[in-house]
Amino acid sequence: QSALTQPASVSGSPGQSITISCKGTSSDVGSYNLVSWYQQHPGKAPKLMIYEVTKRPSGISNRFSGSKSGNTASLTISGLQAEDEADYYCCSYAGSRNLGVFGGGTKLTVL
Amino acid sequence: EVQLVESGGGLVQPGGSLRLSCAASGFIFSSYEMNWVRQAPGKGLEWVSYISPSGSTIYYADSVKGRFTISRDNAKNLLYLQMNSLRAEDTAVYYCARIDFGSDDYWGQGTLVTVSS
Q1: N or C terminus of chain A: which is more exposed, having fewer CB within 10 Å?
Q2: Residue A111 contacts B where some CB pair is shorter than 8 Å
Q3: Interacting residues of A74 by C-beta distance below 8 A, sequence separation 6+
Q4: What is the pLDDT of residues B61-90, one digit of tens each?
Q5: What number is the average pLDDT over the span A20-32?
């Protein structure tokens, strides 16, 4: 199972919006509405930000939103804040006989 | 409160073995799928292994197949990862994780495994 493809880095200024893409295949992202997004700060465990493509867990700001088109999922963060600076990973279900698959990660820098 | 606490990491020589443990609490352990996910220093996340609630279904990443064994003791609320024939490229933080692609998502703090002579 190949990793999902994410840009290595994105950046934005406070208050701006950014979007991180996550390109998969018809075997994972394209076949299931089971895409999650994780935020990871240095030295910390990943934290779930989005699940089932568009849903936010309790306590996650509505500045975070997810979408999907075909084999590509996206995470949008609006109203960027300094604390959003972190690594972001997408993750997709890949079928009942396979492990899930992660993206390579995207480093978000808030300028 | 759901808690996952990993232990057993450390420094091991190439070709050596190590067993990681994950102590689960705050939920009915025997009802949930469990996973091991690792992260090499400065790298991304890699899903290593999956085990079903009963232990009857198990999957491995190709990179560890034949060398790692996942298991669980539902009576003791423990998840294990037996790692044999370790290589330098297995050096990583290993996370125990309850992942169901829904909102019920929990990770431990991780345990560092370093494979080096």
Answers
A1: C
A2: no
A3: A19, A20, A21, A22, A66, A67, A68
A4: 999 999 999 999 999 999 999 999 999 999
A5: 95
